[in-house]
Amino acid sequence: MFKYRPATFADVEDIFNLINGYATQGLMLPKTHNVLYEILREFFVAEEIDSGKIVGCGALHTTWNELAEIRSMAVHQDFHRQGIGGEIVKRLIEVGLAVGVKKFFTLTYQPKFFQSLGFITVPRETLPHKIWTDCIECQKFPNCDEIAMTLETGEKYEK
Questions:
Q1: What are phi and psi of 63, to 5 degrees?
Q2: pLDDT, mean of residues 132-154
Q3: Cα angle 129-131-133, degrees, rounded to a multiple of 5
Q4: How many other CB atoms are found less than 10 A from the CB of residue 95?
Q5: pLDDT tens by residue, 93-119
Q6: From CA 19, how far away is CA 110, in angstroms rounded?
Q7: Which of 27, 58, 109, 155 has the most CB atoms lying inside 10 A of its own CB?
């Protein structure tokens, strides 16, 4: 069983290890401790109830009027295919809807996962220029190879 909750300072090291473990494999972009502390309030985590171990994380980053990014999604490899990632995305979308987000996007190397949650692939160029401010510091800039996907919810999300 898992508990889903907003991240706390005590979770930063586990989030760092999850994200950067996948980053070393080229499956997601790395995050520094400094960045994680700065954006900690954007994160939700999945905690295994019996052990207290953080087994998944994801963040919601608002970028523009009624637009937010689902990012830094990671689930420990020992816990794949248990619905953890989908549940984290669902919680992040609920948080977004509560503040008025109507369109969510992600830049990902895992399009099948996001397709299963209702996201569709779109050309990166269709996203507002405002979202690219973080990209300038990315090691892959300007040759981004992530796949852009969006989910337009209007008022509610039912996946």
A1: -125, -25
A2: 72
A3: 90
A4: 16
A5: 999 999 999 999 999 989 999 999 999
A6: 14
A7: 58
Measured at the CA of 100, the angle between CA 75 and CA 98, to 5 degrees, comes to 60
Q: Which two tokens stand for residue 43?
A: 């994160």
Residue 59 tokens, joined: 């963040």
Listed in sequence order, the residues at least 6 apart from 49 whose beta carbon sits closer than 8 Å to its beta carbon are: 1, 2, 3
Distance CA(105)–CA(68), nearest Å, equals 6
Q: What tokens does 48 get?
A: 């295994």
Residue 135 and residue 118: Cα distance in Å, rounded? 25
pTM for this model (two decimals) = 0.89
| 73, 29 Cβ separation under 8 angstroms | no
Tell me the DSSP string of 29-52.
----HHHHHHTGGGEEEEEETTT-
CA–CA dist 57, 88 (Å, integer): 7
Q: Fill in the amino acid letter for 52.
A: G
